[in-house]
Amino acid sequence: MKNTQIISVINQKGGVGKTTTVINLATALSFQNKKILVIDLDPQGNATTGFGLQNNEQSNTIYDVLNGSINFEEAIKATKIDNLKIVSSNVDLSGLEIETASENRRAFLLKDKIENFINSPKNDFSYIFIDCPPSLSLLTVMSLVVAKSLIVPLQAEFFALEGLTQLIKTIERVKIKLNPDLKIRGVLLTMFDKRNNLSAQVDFEARKFLNEKVYQTVIPRNVRLSEAPSHGIPVLIYDKLCAGSKSYFNFAEEFLNQENRMESAA
Ligand SMILES: Nc1ncnc2c1ncn2[C@@H]1O[C@H](COP(=O)(O)OP(=O)(O)O)[C@@H](O)[C@H]1O
Ligand SMILES: [Mg+2]
């Protein structure tokens, strides 16, 4: 059986860099010959369009998997990038919460679907990254139930840490009731502006509060990162030398080093 890592990229705030982090970490790892699957679990479908797929596509989306019309495997689509596949999303997904209101195992819905696939011989993924919606709704809880670990992008701005406290409480609750093995792998500071004192302050406070859980790599605010999605390609391909790309390459390196440390400690 393949040892596939399932990692959710989570923060209930919108616009903090979740999707950008999923797209670019996944792409950087795929360049290192790792087989990667991205699951777009946000009805906005930004990871879907960020990889150049349509988010108004009606067929074979994560919604179809979760409502039982297709198998997980049938929803896996190719991207333009070797080694990198995606399960796409569209706005239908926003109806799932209401449609499943009477199901008592609904927090396990995604886990049940993915586990069947992961334990099958067809699975050859090293990493599955889940791009979460900006809320602590059912979809996010489903991703917390299936994930082994979490990456939390934290925008270096005022109030960032207050949101983080709320998120940590939710994670603790899910741990106790639904997924005892869940771990925060790390917090990634995003949209860092070194001319802005507030960024430095958030950096300082986050490291004081979370110590080594905060990644050394910091993602700067960089306009190339915000341009790439409209071209349907990751910034690592759109402009691999820009500051944003460099920071995501560094982050992927740090992520893999952390993985090696986790393995040698196990
Ligand atoms: N480091 C950055 N510098 C500049 N713009 C960024 C950066 N990271 C993300 N963006 C842009 O900010 C917006 C929100 O980022 P996104 O990754 O979609 O956040 P989320 O998924 O948390 O809502 C997007 O338009 C994205 O292109
Ligand atoms: Mg997003």
Ligand kinds: adenosine-5'-diphosphate, magnesium ion
Overall mean pLDDT score? 95
CATH architecture: 3-Layer(aba) Sandwich
General form: globular
* Structural class by SSE content: alpha/beta
Specify the CATH homologous superfamily: P-loop containing nucleotide triphosphate hydrolases
Strand order of the largest sheet: 3-4-2-5-1-6-7-8
**Sheet with the most strands, sense and barrel status:** 8 strands, mixed
Quickly describe the structure.
By secondary structure, the protein is of the alpha/beta class. Helices cover 42% and strands 17% of the residues.
SSE inventory with pairings:
Layout: E1 5-9, H1 18-31, E2 36-40, H2 46-50, H3 62-66, E3 76-78, E4 84-87, H4 96-99, H5 109-118, E5 127-131, H6 138-146, E6 149-155, H7 160-177, E7 183-192, H8 197-210, E8 214-220, H9 223-227, H10 235-238, H11 243-265
Parallel strand pairs: 1-5, 1-6, 2-4, 2-5, 6-7, 7-8
Antiparallel strand pairs: 3-4
Helix pairs in contact: 1-11, 5-6
The site of magnesium ion has 5 residues, from helix 1.
Describe this structure in words.
The chain is 42% helix and 17% strand. The protein is α/β, with parallel strands linked by helices. The protein has one domain (5-265): Rossmann fold, CATH 3.40.50.300. The chain has an eight-stranded mixed beta sheet, sandwiched between helices. The longest helix has 23 residues, at 243-265. The protein is globular. The site of magnesium ion (MG) has 5 residues, from helix 1.
